[in-house]
Amino acid sequence: MEILEVLTGMAMTGRLGPVFSGADWSDVTAALGEPWDMGTMSRKRTWPRLFAYGDLELSVCRCRTVSLICVQTWREVIELPAPLAGGADTFPAGITYADVTDALDRAGCSWKPYPPLTFGTQCSLVAGPAQANFTFETPGGEQPVLNVMGLPGNAHDCPARPAGHHHP
Predict the structure, then answer these.
(1) Is 20:66 a contact under the CB 8 Å cutoff?
(2) Where are the domains of the chain?
(3) Series of mean pLDDT values for 10-residue runs along the chain (168 residues)
């Protein structure tokens, strides 16, 4: 399986195997094993926490629900859990804007530019039923290269939220 097939599939379905926004964290760890604990998203709170399986990064809420999913694609090599990527676990990086839009078009996956994340040397598009976000960097006037792909979080009303605390 190619990395573009993996990312296009995520844009179409909103998931990568057992990983999707709202997934139960115990189901994810049962399928993929223990991740790297990247720490907290904020210095003040212990949750949400950021976990990683290679370049697949997941934000997990205090109620142990996956709340945000990203694939970091800016490194030399993109690493994903082999069971989720058709048996491969590393992919070449350097994916261009044209590579992504061609793959989305081939898959019949709709996409459009995403102005809120397009500024300076960065451009962005949103794709598919999952509203996946692909954000590109344009180094030194060259063609844009994929930096990160993310699936939108589910702003759920966390049942584990401490009483009296209100999150906007």
Answers:
(1) yes
(2) 3-151
(3) 89 93 92 81 74 92 90 91 79 91 96 92 94 91 90 73 49
Helix (H, G, I), strand (E, B) or coil at 128: coil
Other Cβ atoms closer than 10 A to 84 = 23
Helix (H) or strand (E) holding 146: strand 145-151
Whether residue 18 is preceded by a cis peptide bond, meaning omega within 30 degrees of 0, is no
Q: Which residue has the tokens 């290679």?
A: 54
Strand ranges (E), 8-142: 15-16, 19-20, 36-40, 49-53, 56-60, 66-72, 77-79, 90-92, 111-113, 122-127, 132-137
Is there a contact between 38 and 57 (Cβ–Cβ < 8 Å)?
Answer: yes
Query: How would you list the strands of the sheet with 111-113, edge to edge?
Result: 36-40, 49-53, 56-60, 66-72, 145-151, 132-137, 122-127, 111-113
Interatomic CA distance for residues 82 and 90, integer angstroms: 8
pLDDT of 166: 47
In terms of phi and psi (left: phi > 0; alpha: psi -120 to 50; beta: otherwise), the region of 77 is beta
Residue 100, φ and ψ in degrees, nearest 5 = -65, -50
The pTM is what? 0.86
